[in-house]
Amino acid sequence: MRIGFIGAGKVGFTLGKYFATHGKEVTGYYSRNTSSSSEAAEFTGTSVFETIEELVGSNDVIFLTVPDGSITSVYEQVIQYPVEGKFICHCSGALASKDAFPGIRDHGAFGYSVHPLFAVSDKYKAYEELADVFFAVEGDEEHIGEIEGMMRDLWLRYQRIDSSAKTGYHCAAAMVSNLMVGLIGQGVDILKGCGFSEDDAISAIGPLVRGNVHHILEDGLAPSLTGPLERGDAGTLRKHLDVLAGDKDKQDLYTILSKSILPIAKKKHPERDYSEIEELLGE
Fold first, then answer.
1. What is the pairing mode between strands 110-116 and 134-139?
2. Count of Cβ atoms closer than 10 Å to residue 26 Cβ
């Protein structure tokens, strides 16, 4: 299948380069910014399309690698031209294909979401990391097997999800990515109250954060859990909650997260009595 990209930003660069270097026929790019499409085409060894009509007519699969807020409006331009039998894909984590492409079957086309669970930072290098990235795939059932076949051909890992699960999927991604910044920021703020500068606090927790994430990814949740709650040390937890008593938001966050890891601790140590901690956390 011939694959074309509308949008020549980081995601378009990354997918186009990976596809082209793994045996897929990538034809090229269309972008309102012609310098971007020229740069992407040069990087991927493909062509620049002067119009959307030209790109649509030349491809079987059309990736709309544009900002989320522009996906539907670009799609509405695409369907002004013959699209019967074509696959139209977007890469948004938040939008389900049926919401991004309203009425697509009326035009004889098929809509899919192909989202990499990955923050693309460097448009020239990120394609080298895609082999380790998981993709979430959802869309029209009639040809989704062909989209999955394309993913397998590219040696990419993927999970098919239902369109109704798309918001939950994106929420999970935000929790472990974006909200992680907030969690670490709370710890840094407490360390600043202990006399650390912000830079020193971030530097100090680096080995702890990296080591913990590494163990979770390598060994799983329960084997990686350590700390006072895991040990059943209610006294230390009580002291932590006391030191946070002047900041209700931090205390609430500590309590909520402690409650969330309590079942993991119980799974790891079914013989251990956590009743005092349950009472302390209001379980």
1. antiparallel
2. 26
Instruction: State residue 21's pLDDT score.
Output: 96
Note the pLDDT of residue 64. 98
pLDDT number for residue 72 = 98
Residues of the chain with pLDDT under 70: none
For residue 182 the two structure tokens come to 């907030």
Residues of the chain with CATH 3.40.50.720: 2-166
Residue 227 three-state SS: coil
Q: Tell me the residue type at 104.
A: I
Pairing of strands 134-139, 157-160: parallel
The CATH topology of domain 2-166 is Rossmann fold (3.40.50)
Residue-level pLDDT at 211: 96
Radius of gyration of the chain, Cα coordinates, nearest whole angstrom: 24
Please state, in angstroms and rounded to a whole number, the distance separating the CA atoms of residues 226 and 206: 17
Write down the pLDDT at residue 261: 97
Q: Kindly report the number of other CB atoms within 10 A of residue 259's CB atom.
A: 15
106-123 burial string, b = 16+ CB within 10 Å, else e? ebebbbbbbbbbbebeeb
pLDDT of residue 121: 84
Confirm if 86 and 56 have CB atoms less than 8 A apart. Answer: yes
Q: pTM of the prediction?
A: 0.87
Amino acid at 258: S
Are 281 and 255 contacting, i.e. CB atoms less than 8 angstroms apart?
A: yes
Could you name the CATH architecture of 176-281? Orthogonal Bundle (1.10)
pLDDT for position 14: 97
Q: Please, where in the chain does CATH 1.10.1040 lie?
A: 176-281
| Residue-level pLDDT at 283 | 77
3-state secondary structure of 244: coil
